[in-house]
Design a protein that fits this description.
It is built from 11 helices and no strands. It has about 220 residues and is mainly α. The longest helix is centred in the N-terminal third of the chain and has 22 residues.
Length: about 220
């Protein structure tokens, strides 16, 4: 890597670590450069943040491209959701720049991620498993995934939130199979029965059972 490339890399790394609220002065101090150097490579703060976001999307999309499609598009959708959330949790500052409130419009690089999601949702629709148009399903899933990731970044310590939200969203956009519908009904029924009877279980066992039944009833 050339010296110029190394300098540019240090500036990008510093801006990524410090986040959107950092000043050019902060970035310079962290990268060990002067403001004219930042302006030389990126023009201004907006140009710097755009470069950081573009690189972030390239890293994110590289992971998505590596996931080969399976024969089950619903499972592909679950894997895509999980991968998105995991990327955000591994790169919280970068994710904030990519999807945070400071952005007034999607970055152009986000379009490829949406195309990948749309391809999966289209396959689900072709299998007759969508309860709404593809466009509506894509928007619903994308909004829920981003919202869940931002919440987990800003409010850590919410175990199971991603999985619960994912399944609730899938339940809203997918047509339930007969087996799934029967299972959810049975889980609801058992929850009602548990509330009205004294089951021969310890409090801990009851808590675990109720949690599992709630997940099945979604």
């Amino acid at each position: 890597m050339s010296e110029q490339s190394q300098v540019r890399r240090r500036i990008l790394d510093a801006a990524t670590e410090l986040g959107v609220d950092a000043s050019i002065r902060d970035v310079c101090a962290a990268a060990g450069v002067t403001p004219p150097t930042v302006y030389h490579y990126f023009g201004d703060k907006k140009g710097l943040l755009d470069a950081v976001v573009a690189e972030g999307f390239e890293r994110y999309l590289a992971e998505k491209r590596e996931r080969a499609e399976s024969a089950d598009p619903v499972e592909d959708l679950r894997r895509g959701w999980n991968g998105h959330v995991e990327f955000g949790l591994r790169n919280p500052a970068l994710y904030g720049l990519m999807y945070g409130g400071a952005r007034t419009a999607p970055h152009p690089a986000a379009a490829e991620g949406e195309r990948i999601l749309r391809r999966i949702v289209t396959r689900i629709g072709e299998a007759g498993l969508l309860r709404m148009p593809v466009d509506d399903a894509v928007q619903t899933i994308h909004a829920a995934t981003v919202g869940t990731t931002i919440l987990l970044i800003t409010s850590p310590g919410l175990p199971g939130l991603s999985e619960r939200t994912r399944e609730a969203v899938l339940g809203s956009v997918l047509v339930a199979t007969r087996a799934e519908s029967d299972l959810a009904t049975a889980a609801d029924t058992l929850l009602v029965l548990l509330a009205g009877t004294d089951a021969p279980l310890t409090p801990g066992e009851l808590a675990i059972l109720r949690e599992l039944l709630v997940r099945l009833a979604i």
